[in-house]
Design a protein that fits this description.
seven-stranded mixed β-sheet, Aminopeptidase, single chain, alpha+beta, about 180 residues
Length: about 180
């Protein structure tokens, strides 16, 4: 049975590994090959070490697991933006678990947290323009691309991205 619960310190390494592995797959051809093959694990590890050792008050991290196996995670920042609401910073699902509703469960869990804990009911995220499968996923859940911009990746590449927005995160729960 799949469970979603708040992440704990003991989840940090598995989250780091899933995050880095996901980037290796999804960002291949978009980010520098050397970064993806050599540096992504340590760089993402530093990000997650910071998030777990010095969490900010509005940060929430949830994991989806089955037994002891991490299947996915989501990291959000409540009320991060005055106009757009809560930032959905990361949503990743293990490649072997895609298509099983884990991304949906995590996104909808986050939407319920936003509804109950945030002052602003909106949500937003940044997604690479070439990440077509993620864009279809967010389209399905009622997200609207509102801004096209460039993201400077950790290794220096400039990549086109979109900001997706939900006026009301309750829209996510309707799917």
């Amino acid at each position: 049975m799949i469970t979603i619960k708040p992440a704990k310190l003991e989840d940090q390494n598995a989250i780091t590994c899933l995050h880095a592995t996901s980037w290796q797959t999804v960002y291949a051809g978009l980010l520098q090959p050397q970064y993806l093959s050599e540096d992504v694990f340590s760089e993402r590890g530093n990000v997650w070490q910071q998030r777990f050792s010095q969490p900010v008050a509005n940060q929430r991290i949830f994991v989806a697991s089955e037994g002891q196996m991490l299947l996915g995670f989501i990291c959000i920042y409540l009320d991060q933006h005055q106009e757009y609401g809560t930032l959905i910073e990361n949503l990743h699902v293990d490649a072997n678990s895609k298509g099983k509703g884990i991304g949906k469960a995590l996104l909808q869990h986050a939407a319920r947290v936003i509804q109950s804990d945030a002052l602003h009911c909106g949500a937003y995220l940044e997604v690479l323009d070439q990440n077509v499968s993620a864009r279809h996923f967010y389209d399905y859940f009622g997200g609207t691309p509102i801004i096209s911009q460039q993201w400077q990746a950790p290794e220096g590449s400039l990549v086109d991205e979109l900001i997706y927005h939900w006026e009301d995160s309750a829209t996510i729960l309707k799917r």
